[in-house]
């Protein structure tokens, strides 16, 4: 059983935590879904219909991560400090497909919607790091088959990754923290309800504005993540929650 004095902490993050690093969110007025139809670039049907357009969409979003023209911000770094300093387990479950948590120093991390810096082969199912453009002419380095390499990203209608591990972590945490997510997309949007149903964890939302699930949280704080997250981490490490 987890150490009740230092219970495990589960942190759900969304696009809002990367916004101040210069990466767009999805549903803000200037967000990604205001510029491109998710049906065209974030569904298996869209990929089957026009794989080149989907590859171009992810190739463009992969570039600032590869050339590191975007960097982790104070919120990413604060979460890495929490993981380092908290005696109990700290697990980040991110919906983000960027690598800013890793570059900010976090290690115990699940990318439930996949990763932009990886691709997978639909023929041999290999998942591999990927830094250059992928196209319909890309040859899988594992099996040699051409045209079956796709972004290692979970699209709408597909199963998020590592759900068993996530459910287990939600079931034993003492603090559930949600940062920078609008609470629009399940199963992530339902995590707070799952934690509340178990009745043992404190639930906190740190966001720019109330999410769709705001009323489910025991505590909410609104503002930029680079202000809220370092302050909350300092509080947890000095006087708990
Ligand atoms: N600090 C904190 N929160 C912020 C900031 C900021 N600087 N800027 C924006 N936000 C908040 C917005 O108010 C919004 O509630 O971040 C949230 C971003 O919401 P979305 O754009 O919907 O992103 P997200 O919740 O991560 O989307 C979930 O939907 O499209 C799919 O797969 C995609 O993983 C994504 C999922």
Helical content class: 25-40%
DSSP summary, beta strand count: 9
Shape: globular
Which spans of ≥5 residues are poorly predicted at pLDDT below 50? none
Major sheet strand order: 3-2-1-7-8-9
Mean pLDDT: 97
What does this structure look like?
By secondary structure, the protein is an alpha/beta fold. It contains nine helices and nine strands. Strands 3-2-1-7-8-9 form a six-stranded parallel β-sheet, sandwiched between helices. A three-stranded antiparallel β-sheet has the order 5-4-6, covered by helices on one side. 39% of the residues are buried. The model has no long low-confidence stretch (mean pLDDT 97). Residues 14-16, 19-20, 25-28, 31, 95, 113, 180-182, 184-185, 207-209, 211, 224-225 line the site of adenosine-5-diphosphoribose.
Structure keywords:
9 helices, binds adenosine-5-diphosphoribose, 241 residues, 18% strand, 3-stranded antiparallel beta sheet, alpha/beta
What's the topology here?
Elements: E1 9-13, H1 16-19, H2 38-41, H3 44-49, H4 51-66, H5 74-85, E2 90-94, H6 100-104, E3 109-111, E4 114-121, E5 127-129, E6 149-153, H7 163-172, E7 175-179, H8 191-198, E8 202-207, E9 219-222, H9 225-239
Parallel strand pairs: 1-2, 1-7, 2-3, 7-8, 8-9
Antiparallel strand pairs: 4-5, 4-6
This protein binds adenosine-5-diphosphoribose.
Adenosine-5-diphosphoribose binds at residues 14-16, 19-20, 25-28, 31, 95, 113, 180-182, 184-185, 207-209, 211, 224-225.
